[in-house]
Amino acid sequence: MDNDVKDEAYYRKLWTGMFPVRLKVALEDGVLVNAYCPQCRFCCGPQAEEKPFPMALLDRQISARTPDDFYLLDSRTASLDRRGCKSLGPSGCRLERPLRPLACGLFPLVLVNRRLYLYKICPASMLEPLETFQAMAAQVKAMLEALPAADVERISIFRDPEDLKAKYLDLGLDVAGS
Ligand code: SF4
Ligand code: SF4
């Protein structure tokens, strides 16, 4: 979910001004609850990158309404691109949690190349202690490793590690799947 070419200092200033008070960030029932999201909406909005950000859907999340909820790369993969996400509303995501791609429930933790990264220009990533995300990433790793390896493969995004350096922090946790 990349959507700008500005540097980290730009975002730190932006988020510090927008969020003078620290908000809740916690992993609850396998979902990363991030109270910065409704006001931020940054990673759900229009993306600057040419390459769409794929968000795999689970079979149980796919129905006749899916094309109304998402721009699609294929019938099982939602796409986040220059148009932003179709489900982004004025107060954040308009979808009930079970309908959101698994990636959305983990962000700003991101599974890339079957390894956990932190999207470091998210306001929560910038304003909350790194240790908070490291601890949550360890729990997410355990949670994902309970999934079949094929599912882990499916939900993992594939990117050249060199392309990740600007916006993603490598948390050093590989996810194998069972
Ligand atoms: S950038 Fe972070 S705070 Fe903003 S919408 Fe995305 S996950 Fe939420
Ligand atoms: S489904 Fe919701 S949380 Fe996920 S990218 Fe779209 S608007 Fe954001």
Written account of the structure:
With 178 residues, the chain is of the alpha+beta class. It is built from 7 helices and 10 strands. The chain has a domain at 8-50 and 103-174. It has a 3-stranded antiparallel sheet. Strand 4 (71-74) and strand 5 form a beta hairpin. One iron/sulfur cluster (SF4) binds at residues 44, 80, 85, 87-88, 93, 95, 100-101, 104.
Structure summary:
This protein is α+β, with helices and mostly antiparallel strands and 178 residues long. Helix content is 29%, strand content 22%.
Task: Summarize this structure as a short list of keywords or feature phrases.
globular; 3-stranded antiparallel beta sheet; 178 residues; single chain; alpha+beta; binds iron/sulfur cluster
Helices and strands, in order, run as: HEEHEHEEEEEEHHHHE
Note the total helix count.
7
Shape: globular
**Hetero ligands:** iron/sulfur cluster
Strand order of the largest sheet: 3-5-4
Compute the separation of the termini in Å: 27 Å
Mean pLDDT, nearest integer? 92
Beta-strand content estimate? 15-25%
